[in-house]
Amino acid sequence: MNTEFHRIKRLPAYVFAEVNALKARARSAGEDIIDLGMGNPDLPTPQHIIDKLCEVAQDPKAHRYSASQGIKGLRKAFVGYYERRFGVSLDMNKEVCVTLGSKEGLANLASAITSPGDIILSPNPAYPIHPFGFIIADGSVRYLPFEPNADFLAALERAVLYTQPKPKALILNYPSNPTALTASLDFYRQVVDFCRHHEIWILSDLAYAEVYFDIEPPPSILQIPGAKDIAIEFTSMSKTYSMPGWRVGFAAGNPVLMNALIRIKSYLDYGAYTPIQVAAAAALNGPQDCVAEMRQTYKERRDVLIEGLAQAQWHIPLPQASMFAWAPIPPAFKHLGALEFSKLLLTQAGVAVAPGTGFGENGEGFVRIAVVENKHRIRQAVRNIKTFLGNAGAVLEAAEKKRAGAS
Fold first, then answer.
1. What is the reported pTM?
2. CATH classification code of 6-44+290-406
């Protein structure tokens, strides 16, 4: 029997698997591992959202199939959010779809619009679903620089000039996972003008729109006049309201892309559980002090991490958004590469991080650190890392001996 499945063959080995396996073995052995690897929000979902879920779940009618595009009340609440936050008007019937998290929406849209051999443009490093949603759908990916600057725009122009067939779509993600970089309206304006001229779709992932510090709120690409002619944007409840397991997200924007997404979803799902959708509407329509508290919590954790590691001589750029720090590997360990450094940090310091190569080849030389533990635990992680870095010589010598013995 042939067990070589075409789409599975196109997926590389999961880089995070080795670190996850080490983490599981360490915990099974009773070791205390501080997990700063996965971007998995640890803050509790605000109580008024949980209360609404429980209230609606008492209604027997609420347990029937829901609506694949999303219930009317939730789509209306999302339209209100975009109007308040970005000054963008949306048609809730033609320009909005509720998704099972932004990840599902991106993957299903990729499936809906990709033909074999289509070329997709994606920054590298990137959140894995951005390129691999299209690779799974039999597309091919050409990578671009990840910083939203003149180099990105020049690379975008080269990609159109020298790629055959012409690229079909461009993926953007700012605030970025994993790099935490943000984009300006001026950058979006230039990208929209270029992609409209060359008839290239834009898929923007705005999942971290509300997780920002010390800067103006990150913009939406849909704020640019004419963006809806070519762009669709994905957002999520996961980070804003600490609802990752609830799996509620949204797509907004271009009606043609939206129709493709809605049509393919109609074959695949009946939408999220209705009480979850009603609770999500209550989150968008209700008090927003919980969002400000979320931002303050992540900011305080970020400061503890960055300042503490700086005292340990590991200097990391201060992230202005997201729940991540994109950290260059300390010079003494850089020759090991991201994966081996991550494994050493876990086994020797008891701290799990994500190797940068899990987000693409240009992530080599970096690790992603998520502030998804409380300040006490982050301080503990900093102390462990400080000891680890202080013993760099001995740690590297032991690691080299171990590798030599295994070879």
1. 0.94
2. 3.90.1150.10
